């Protein structure tokens, strides 16, 4: 068989199995690790590496993330950070009793004050602002054009009052005021 016959040969359609709805992957809840949950002292010591102890409030919660991984949350008492929490992630290896501080930092809580979501400039500008900006550009173009001409006509030859060009209108060269302001 040549290459041409392979390409020209009709492809045999394999029967497709009936489509089944995809089952969501079952995920079991992570096991609560009593050793990690109880180790508040290690979590607080981890947070004290980045924050002054006076900035760590008495409020404390624990969130289980995965097996052998928990997050301890402490209230933040810094002015301006109401609703924020210091956190320390604690973990341990299987069958180990040694607790490790993985990460520490500051997280916003549910009632924390956050910056609004960023919006691109093109979406922030209202139609009125766009119209005003276009008008300002037109005014700048008009000011940049030679006196007595519209911005669109700046490239055209000047037209005299009689309807023709200045050279062909029959106007005399000396008929206007002289440079010293006197008429001839």
Widest sheet: strand order? 1-2-3-4
**Poorly predicted runs of 5 or more residues:** 1-6, 162-171
Structural class: alpha+beta
Largest sheet: 4 strands, antiparallel
How many strand units?
A: 4
List the SSEs and their pairings:
Elements: H1 3-8, H2 34-38, H3 40-47, E1 56-66, E2 69-76, E3 84-91, E4 100-108, H4 121-124, H5 127-144
Antiparallel strand pairs: 1-2, 2-3, 3-4
Can you offer a commentary on this structure?
With 184 residues, the chain is an alpha+beta fold. It has a domain at 34-108. The chain is 22% helix and 20% strand. The protein has five helices and four strands; from the N terminus they run H-H-H-E-E-E-E-H-H. It has helices at residues 3-8, 34-38, 40-47, 121-124, 127-144; strands at 56-66, 69-76, 84-91, 100-108. Strands 1-2-3-4 form a four-stranded antiparallel β-sheet, covered by helices on one side. Strand 2 (69-76) and strand 3 (84-91) form a beta hairpin. The protein is flat and about 90 Å long. Residues 1-6 and 162-171 have low confidence and may be disordered.
């Amino acid at each position: 068989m040549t290459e041409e016959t392979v390409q020209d040969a009709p492809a045999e359609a394999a029967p497709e199995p009936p489509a089944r709805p995809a089952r969501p992957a079952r995920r079991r809840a992570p096991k609560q690790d009593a050793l990690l949950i109880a180790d508040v002292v290690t979590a607080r010591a981890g947070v004290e590496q980045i924050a002054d102890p006076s900035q760590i409030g008495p409020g404390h919660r624990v969130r289980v993330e995965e097996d052998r991984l928990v997050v301890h949350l402490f209230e933040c008492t810094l002015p301006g950070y109401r609703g924020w929490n210091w956190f320390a992630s604690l973990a341990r290896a299987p069958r180990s009793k040694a607790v490790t501080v993985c990460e520490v930092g500051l997280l916003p809580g549910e009632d924390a004050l956050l910056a609004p979501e960023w919006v691109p400039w093109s979406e922030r500008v209202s139609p009125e602002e766009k119209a005003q900006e276009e008008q300002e550009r037109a005014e700048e173009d008009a000011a940049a054009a030679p006196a007595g001409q519209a911005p669109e006509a700046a490239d055209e030859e000047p037209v005299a009052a009689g309807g023709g060009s200045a050279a062909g209108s029959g106007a005399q060269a000396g008929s206007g005021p002289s440079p010293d302001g006197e008429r001839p």
